[in-house]
């Protein structure tokens, strides 16, 4: 048979019913509910007063294993600062032909400036569209990502509020004492988002778990001294 052996599973599954795979059709139930920490298209966040969180430190570019991020910082103008720090991100680009959505840039950012949204449906008609610029990545005055012509936003209302879900993990470095403690800044349009529940939160008991277990009956005295 040779190379045909590799098609055994393919042909076997071809005639199995019911099938678990369902067709993807926009606006007709084809989309599944996205996990809260899904890695999607990036955004550059702003503080509640409108100032940008990015300080141009280039840590995200340095940690990126795919080398898809290009950042250049510049000194803040004294008369009209862009960010609260001394510097801001003057140039910020992400090449989505290279990005692997590993989220290392999000973990490396000291100011929670870059996070990943839950938007992942975008296709490009040319290579230049795949390079997102700072103007395309910075959130708008309402705190929402900026919609680009090649992005599908049919479920934006369900995913936009979870843009920074990864940053709101409740147990940094696995330390349970930090669970539920807010340790992040507010965001434009959303304020300070609540903490996620940690793994140590007690799950609601099921009826079977709530019933007390019957006590064990003591062994008969006549067999207590026997050895086998």
Contiguous runs where pLDDT drops below 50 for at least 5 residues: none
CATH fold node name of the domain at 36-191 = Alpha-Beta Plaits
Spatial separation of the terminal alpha carbons: 61 Å
Question: Using DSSP, what is the number of strands?
Answer: 5
Write down the oligomeric state.
Answer: single chain
Relative helix content: 10-25%
Query: What's the rounded overall pLDDT mean?
Result: 79
Largest beta sheet, briefly?
3 strands, antiparallel
Number of helices: 7
Indicate the overall shape.
globular
What's the architecture of the domain at 36-191 in CATH terms? 2-Layer Sandwich
Which CATH C-level class of the domain at 36-191 is it? Answer: Alpha Beta
Kindly estimate the percentage of residues that lie in beta strands according to DSSP. 5-15%
SSE topology string: HEHEEHEEHHHH
Strand arrangement within the widest β-sheet reads 2-3-5
Structural class assignment = little secondary structure
Task: Please tag this protein with its features.
globular; little secondary structure; 7 helices; 11% strand; two-stranded antiparallel ribbon; 5 strands
């Amino acid at each position: 048979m040779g190379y045909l052996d590799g098609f055994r599973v393919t042909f076997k599954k071809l005639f199995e019913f019911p099938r678990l795979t369902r067709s993807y059709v926009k606006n007709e139930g084809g989309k599944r509910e996205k996990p809260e920490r899904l890695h999607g298209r990036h955004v550059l966040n702003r503080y509640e007063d409108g100032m940008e969180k990015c300080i141009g430190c280039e840590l995200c570019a340095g940690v990126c294993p795919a080398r898809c991020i290009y950042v250049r910082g510049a000194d803040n103008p004294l008369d009209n600062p862009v960010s609260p720090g001394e510097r801001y991100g003057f140039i910020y680009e992400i090449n989505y032909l290279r990005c692997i959505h590993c989220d290392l840039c999000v973990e490396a950012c000291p100011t929670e400036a870059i996070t990943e949204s839950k938007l992942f449906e975008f296709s490009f008609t040319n290579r230049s569209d795949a390079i997102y610029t700072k103007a395309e990545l910075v959130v708008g005055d309402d705190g929402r990502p900026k919609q680009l012509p090649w992005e599908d936003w049919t479920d934006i209302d369900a995913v936009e509020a979870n843009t920074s879900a990864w940053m709101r993990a409740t147990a940094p470095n696995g330390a349970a004492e930090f669970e539920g403690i807010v340790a992040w800044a507010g965001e434009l349009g959303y304020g300070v988002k609540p903490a996620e529940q940690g793994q140590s939160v007690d799950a609601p008991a099921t009826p079977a778990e709530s019933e007390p277990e019957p006590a064990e009956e003591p062994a008969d005295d006549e067999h207590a001294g026997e050895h086998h």
